[in-house]
């Protein structure tokens, strides 16, 4: 056996575990879902082939399209607050700040804490009957009546704030890694040429950070469009569907929230909703890549 | 090179070994088994040869110490060398059962509830027990064999033990403070009482009414269901007489809930309230009344011990008249035998032991559930839990025939009516839309052969079990 073939055999063996895992946990479920979106299937019994019925139901399913709208509001709000805030924190912590490492750890902490735990804590902070936020606002005489933070009017704002709190540290760290890869001599020569801090940020930091920022923003967009975990714990999509986002709607179709009376799984329709949701997220990500293609040109 | 291959082969063998060990471990990490209180596991009797090992899975946690005790007694005393191992699941029981059956690691005996029995039967997980039933057992449980609850297509899969009654739970101290002598018997009285309580208590954060509206279906299925059945209508919107869905009576009840919301008598934030935070607020004396199951006395004994004076009483009705019976829910099933069990005879012997008079009687007396088997009710003393007296099965309680479970397109009745309750809309249009969607889903399910519906024009809601 030639050296080349031996090498190929070795390499294949190393790749085998990840190929098996990808095939079993990624490709197989995907093919399974692609099949069942053309079936009426409740998870047991006979799966009935229904052609494109699930997709025609999807087109007239007002709840799904409401959830798509809610997803855009949630993702838009989260991105608008998270990205500038995490970049700002990264720039501040990239300077020679006393206790910077400790602050980095503190800001990153929400990323490693369980989303469910964070969400339960935020529920107790924001609930209107004995939540801390209302107690504080009322003690400071800023409001006379408790604000219904989780009610129909404010629930979306509240879940966005919770999502921002959970995400800022993560993106801050990614921006920080990007900032630290910018050569210091660029700043030094700009300083010698008389550029102030603002000009250095605008003309060196931002352009040099562009490739990293492009990736960070892509990750943030995908995560925001797919995020539903904290919403599930805090409001379960309510009240009256005001915080029902696309992937939470999908989750409930596939794994109905248990109640005293049975609720059936809708594997067939859920697969169609899953496919449509993936197409929506994929299309937005693709559009973003197209619009941001110039960001990837490193100076 | 040879060393590299040897190393790789060893790694693969190790990985396969670890995976194999993992695969054989059928017990969930979050579950507990029937170790004795000192931590040791019930040992098989060594002198009788290889014992028959049975696995019993349940998701009941409230009674696990008592069940462990019963199983250890069975293991020590049965003359057939049967050893039962108990596994108490903490979460995702149905999914765990699905996985166990698809990987041939199914338990021999399963805890069945009304929410999962029909699904388990359809999936082929259960074996009928008709062949095992003795004449005595047929007499004892005969009146509690109900189609689509424990009997499917004429075959019996489980037997009844306990059921849950539903009641209005109210804080006696708050009612007295608001000058209300008796709990409401009509929905109008409930609205008026909730308003009075809120007027008197709002400054101290006390409100008249609350429900766990975070999941409207859970909230309404523990309240409106009972109000309707006691008022003479099926509680989930199904009309037994016509065999069709008709949400008109449901919409009448919603008007009163809407009024309470408009009056500001409902605890602020109830839109996102789960049942446990609600109970915590009730235990803290902040809620005048709510409706719930007979699990509440146990909750206020162990989970949220409270000093407030509270009681359970029959739910109010539409017009103050009792025209139907209060539906006993989650009743009719307890244990069932796996269709894949290699030891079905032994499993039945264990089931027979568990369905013995002594076990069922003590189960009721200890307050783990309210007995519904007539012969047990005759001999058992009242449960030892305070507050349970209001939940005991009385003349106005009964089982109802099962209503068909269908999944309509769009929002379910609870979400649609809850939206109307807090955001308004046209009640008649919402009701007509629900009727149309639910009946369309019903026709589809009937056409597919998933459900059979037989209209019963002579249905009498005061005797719902009469044919």
What does this structure look like?
The complex is a heterodimer of chains A (299) and B (467). Chain A contains twelve helices and two strands. Chain A is mostly helical and 299 residues long. Chain A has a two-stranded antiparallel ribbon with strand order 1-2. In chain A, helix 3 (62-94) runs antiparallel to helix 9 (197-226) and helix 4 crosses helix 7 (155-180). Chain A is globular. Chain B is α/β, with parallel strands linked by helices and 467 residues long. Chain B folds into two domains: 2-163 and 330-398, Periplasmic binding protein-like II (D-Maltodextrin-Binding Protein, domain 2, 3-Layer(aba) Sandwich), CATH 3.40.190.10; 166-327, 3-Layer(aba) Sandwich (D-Maltodextrin-Binding Protein, domain 2). Chain B is built from 17 helices and 18 strands. In chain B, strands 1-3-2-4-16-5 form a six-stranded mixed beta sheet, with helices on one face. In chain B, strands 10-13-9-14 form a four-stranded mixed beta sheet. A two-stranded antiparallel sheet of chain B has the order 6-7. The radius of gyration of chain B is 25 Å and the shape is globular. Mean pLDDT of chain B is 87; it is low at 10-31 and 35-47. The chains are: A mainly alpha (299), B alpha/beta (467). The interface between A and B is large, with 40 and 45 residues.
Note the total helix count of chain B. 17
Shape of chain A: globular
Spatial order of the strands forming the largest sheet of chain B: 1-3-2-4-16-5
Order of neighbouring strands in the sheet with most strands of chain A:
1-2
CATH class of the largest domain in chain B: Alpha Beta
Low-confidence stretches of chain B at least 5 residues in length (pLDDT < 50)? 10-31, 35-47
Shape of chain B: globular
The CATH fourth-level homologous superfamily of the largest domain in chain B: Periplasmic binding protein-like II
Arithmetic mean pLDDT of chain B: 87
Classification by helices and strands of chain B: alpha/beta
Helix content of chain B: 25-40%
Let me know the average pLDDT of chain A. Answer: 89
| CATH fold descriptor of the largest domain in chain B | D-Maltodextrin-Binding Protein, domain 2
- Name the helix and strand elements of chain A from N-terminus to C-terminus, one letter apiece: HEEHHHHHHHHHHH
Task: Quote the distance from N terminus to C terminus of chain B.
Answer: 81 Å
Beta-strand residue fraction of chain A = under 5%
Radius of gyration of chain B: 25 Å
Give the DSSP E fraction of chain B (strand runs of 2 or more residues). 5-15%
